[in-house]
Amino acid sequence: MKKKIKDLIFICLITIIPTLLIWLPFFAKIESFWTIPLGKDGMATIVANYDGPLYIVIAKSLYNTEIIKQITSFPLPVEYYAAHFPLFPLLIRLIAPLFGFPYAMLLTTIFTSIFCIYFFYKLARTKLNESQAKWLTFIFSIFPARWLITRSIGSPEPLFVGAIIASVYYFREKKYLLSGIMGMIAQLTKSPGILLFVAYIIAIFIQESSRLTNLKQEKKINSLNLLKYLPILLIPLSLIIIFIIYGIRFNDFFAYFHSGDNIHLFFPPFQVFNYSSHWVGTFWLEEVIFVYLLSSWGIIKLFKNKETILASVSTIFFASILFVAHRDIIRYLLPAVPFLIWGYKDILLKKEFRPVIFLIIIPIYLFAIGFISQNKMPIADWAPLL
């Protein structure tokens, strides 16, 4: 019991301290840090970061279109909110009576970040000793910088990524009901949750095919038991439930697909290099190639190490970003990041690599505060969001 408490304290510390350090210059209303302009809005900058205020609107309105029109002055059609799934705003609404909606949103992000990093640690402990698992978990708590940013503002990503890690963890442990429940949580949080279901179908096919290959023909039928995987159907079922809710609230079962410029998937692939695309807007894109390179090699390493489930999940989410035309492409890859880190563990756990991690902490921090200072929604009147 004492060891579990110590582990939890460690997880809480590496989750909360980096976030507090990012908040610090905004809380102190420091207008410039390390020559980086941060503005004068203080913590309002943190709360105003995309898409936090939109989730506050959903938390207050529960997709009631009339209430949405009353509490927001954002130049967005009410259907736009269908792109933002309900679980994260429901959690905000749950604790909002105690803290108010803006800070309830930030606290929800912190709590779900602890949940996420806790399950990464549990996954790491399945094959690593305590010190190795803690070091790998520390890396995941701050890297990549875009991940640290999303868990330091109002964002559903920590809950989404955490639920995926938890689902994969239980799937590997053959606890399929818990895996399905966690997959359902992921789906209720963000629309790409359905990709987890696709990844499981692929993983099941690979696992069962491999297992049956060496069996005699008469034993194959008796050995093929797919009923144990039924709980993963909770994932698409929860998506149908969301669409039913949309049918009631928006009078449109397919409101998600009519939510406007929210689905950034395009054909042919690699449209991110079209600098004229609305959500790209720059030709400075070479780092995207490194994202593709490191991701694909990490997936190969996972398959090579026979991490079928982790590799399948990573492959599906990686394949999806090949069709994403958005400058913020790393955010779309975040569900695969914990498993890619696992794939590179042989390098990341080397003592020689530790100075590299400590070196990049400073640029991670500077990038994070600079990004947050600019990635904010223009909000003239906060009163309806409080």
Molecular structure report:
The chain has 386 residues and is mainly α. The chain has one domain. It contains 19 helices and 2 strands. A two-stranded antiparallel ribbon has the order 1-2. It is globular, with a radius of gyration of 21 Å.
* Overall body shape: globular
Percent helix range: 55-70%
**Largest sheet report:** 2 strands, antiparallel
Strand pairing plus helix content: what structural class? mainly alpha
- β-strand percent reads under 5%
Question: What's the domain count?
Answer: 1
Order of helices and strands: HEEHHHHHHHHHHHHHHHHHH
Strand order of the main beta sheet, please?
A: 1-2
Rg for CA atoms: 21 Å
Mean pLDDT level: 94
Low-confidence stretches: none
Q: List how many beta strands DSSP finds.
A: 2
Cα distance, first to last residue? Answer: 40 Å
